[in-house]
Specification:
CATH superfamily of the largest domain: Periplasmic binding protein-like II
Number of domains: 3
Strand content: 5-15%
Largest sheet: 5 strands, mixed
CATH architecture of the largest domain: 3-Layer(aba) Sandwich
Order of helices and strands: HHHEEHEHEEEEHHHEHEH
Structural class: alpha/beta
Number of helices: 10
Length: 307
């Protein structure tokens, strides 16, 4: 039975316009005139028998039918592009990974050599950044992000929970002369980034009332990878995810003074557009990474040092 397909030139013009929500930007991307893009979309709307865009004076918006077709069209073109690249070069090429610095320094950089040894034809390029990469605008194949679920429109695999607890250099207690017997004793210590919301969550779980830190005072190190460096240097107490600092705990560069670990809904996620799920280099990296994190809800704080 023959497939009922729309004109691919019209679908291509619509997909670009739906992605950009702009006929002008779609025309620039495709090397067409704006009038030509508009004409192709009109042809597609006539085939469907319904409008795909709500056309305003200065902007356009997708109709319900347009949103459904736009999402599916983008995924289909991503799949075709991935298959084309695979047909051209097999699994060779460059795999660009956008990764949050905490995960990059705490785990990925220490293990990535194993993936590279197993797949020498894939050149891996790491882009360590706190910014969320835009897969449509940046040359990024996969992302590893921290926080809540990345949301609709991306395939997302949870790697681990971002559980957290206070940690400090063992010399800090002796240097301050303030014994750490109860969680409330931490209130007298220098806290690294004291307005981090994790602090209030941890103190609440510990049964400690902590007032006066509801307003952000602007003191930020930018991420727990930097906060951990400050804690190892003895500058204060940082609230950290123990999984990433097992080596520091084992070597005595950090200690966890209390067994109170906050379980978080936040986590670390491997994500990519649906159309790339079958691209060989993405599939190989995904399968390798997930083999190291088989249970994203497991408590990994007590796992031994990183080998």
């Amino acid at each position: 039975m023959a497939r009922s397909l729309p004109p691919l030139s019209a679908l291509r013009a619509f997909e670009a316009a739906a992605r950009h929500l702009s006929f002008t930007r779609a025309a620039e991307e495709l090397g067409m005139t704006q009038a030509a893009v508009s004409y192709q979309i009109k042809l597609l709307e006539e085939r469907i028998g319904a409008p795909l865009f709500l056309r305003g004076r200065r902007q356009v918006a997708l109709t319900e039918a347009g949103e459904r077709l736009g999402s599916d069209a983008t995924n289909a073109f991503e799949t075709i592009a991935a298959s084309f690249e695979a047909a051209k070069g097999g699994v060779a090429g460059v795999l660009t990974i956008s990764v949050i610095p905490t995960f990059a320094t705490g785990w990925l950089a220490r293990h990535l050599y194993a993936f590279q040894l197993a797949h020498p034809t894939i050149a891996v390029r790491l882009h360590s950044t706190r910014d969320v990469s835009d897969f449509e605008k940046e040359p990024v194949d996969v992302g590893i992000r921290g926080g809540l679920h990345p949301g609709r429109g991306l395939v997302a695999h949870k790697l681990l929970r971002a559980d957290f607890t206070p940690m400090l250099h063992p010399d800090l207690e002796a240097r301050t002369g303030l014994p750490l017997r109860e969680p409330s004793d931490l209130l007298a210590y220098p806290l690294i980034d004291p307005t981090d919301p994790w602090w209030n969550e941890w103190f609440a779980q510990a049964g400690v009332t902590r007032a006066g830190f509801e307003v952000d005072d602007g003191h930020k190190m930018g991420g727990q990878d930097l906060e951990a460096i400050a804690a190892v240097a003895g500058h204060g107490v940082a609230v950290l995810t123990p999984f990433f600092y097992r080596d520091d705990l084992a070597a005595g560069r950090l200690v966890q003074p209390f067994d109170i670990l906050c379980a978080s809904e936040r986590g670390y996620w491997l994500c990519y557009p649906p159309g790339r799920r079958n691209a060989p280099k993405v599939r190989l990296f995904r399968d390798w990474l997930l083999s190291h994190f088989p249970d994203p809800e497991a408590d990994l704080s007590s796992v031994g040092p990183i080998g």
